[in-house]
User: Fold Phage tail protein from Macrococcus bovicus.
Amino acid sequence: MVNAQAKTPKSFINVKDLGFAVVATDELTGTTYTNVTQTRGLQKISVETGGELKTAFADGLIIEAGNTDGSGKIGMTMHAIPAEIRKIIFNEKADEKGIISEVAGQQNNYVAVWFKRERRDGTYQLIGLTKVMFSNPKLEGETAKADWDFSSEDTDGTAMHRQSDRKRKITWDSASALGTEADFFTELLKGAYKAAPPTQVI
Assistant:
């Protein structure tokens, strides 16, 4: 009998195609999304959804082990966050004079978020989180110098399970030769992606 051999994995070399959609409703009866928007400028992203490993001891040994769902975390660095994306994820609203005010008690939106990880051979993986709330990024500035650097913006978020099906992270890999990218978006956005193709924001 010959043991199965896993294929040699290929590493990821790039991230791109960052997208967001507002969670319009999230009830036990169903989840709906609006404002499906894709943007450029993603520099770095990290997703942590693994839970904590718990062990039980008896008779001087580990007798049982299991992992918890854990708290989902996402960290994101962008070249700059466009105004259209800030409106979606931070719930920023400008008045008739273009002034944006931070109001006491105002909440950021729950959003779905997704992105693509590409390999050198052209295959890629899509990763999506069904329900995230991001914190507002810090505002930083630095005086111009003779040898200056481009700025970037960072934000962190908490990833939750949506109520309708208790799902949090959705992934699909083009190298699997199973399903399609459309299947991924149907599972992640429950039809909102097909109903309204994503608006491109640069």
